[in-house]
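#data-curation
PF: Archiving a pair of folding outputs for the training set. Convention for this channel: one message per protein, sequence first, structure tokens after, nothing in between. First:
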Amino acid sequence: PVFADIAASALRAFHDSRLGAPTAAEAPHGEAPHVWHWIDVNHRCNRLLWDEEDLARRTSVAAAQIVANKRAIDTYNQQRNDAIERIDELLLARLEGVIVAADAWHNSETAGSIIDRLSILALKILHMDCAAQRAGASAEHRAPCRDRHRRLCVQRDELADCFDTLLTHAAKGAAFWRVYRQFKMYNDPSLNPQLNRGGS
């Protein structure tokens, strides 16, 4: 099968297994031809983003520290989006010999974007579970956290089914998606005039 190694169950196991792994902040080095490399990069970026988003909401630190958090968020988000696009490119390359049927459905969400959402859901489930079991937390705190945790698990199950369905049908030519480029403008001095004003 074209996507035998990319089942949602494998993604879920991978995402969960990496939640406690070190998150080195360096950018990925070079180009890697294997889709699982970019799935790992995407998940690493989401884990780094989670931490930076928490830090950026502090109110008891100097403004310069929040600026540093925001710049880190910008960097990791760019790497995250780049990884999503690379995942889509590599998955679509496997379909080069597949003839797309005239009545095939066009999935508006790409496979890479679904993988990204599954990564984020893995993080949400972990942190919501921690919140539900926090030492010293009241019953009023635990109960809604447990309910949210349950609902997040349902969301992940349903999204995983959608992912498997998309890839199964795409392998048969009954569905397709395209690589949607983000074309982020804010990091490009030629497109963001604020970057050419010397910080004024």
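PF: Second:
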Amino acid sequence: MRFMYVLVAEKPMLPNPALREAIRKLAEREIAAGRMLDTGALLPRTAGAEVRIKDRKLTVTDGPFMEAKEVVGGYAIFELKDKEEAVARGVEFMQLHLDHMPDWELSCEVRPFMEC
């Protein structure tokens, strides 16, 4: 099963060097094992654009635009056997954050892809 991990934080922060190194090692291991298919960190919303449909109209707004309460800071895509394994890998990833930046409050959504 394919899963997407979405990292969400109320306050955007950059990982410190120790956390970056721990994440790099974890990613190398997961890629080598064939479980991690893709990953990336996102630039702030001010660097992007928003394409929206509202009131049956399509609009495009370049950043910066109204800030959301929460910010998506990164993602990863894994191929795993089941939700239990996906959650366990999410816990391992978040433990790195707790170990290296314990004051950073964030969440990791673990969501399966819809099978077509």
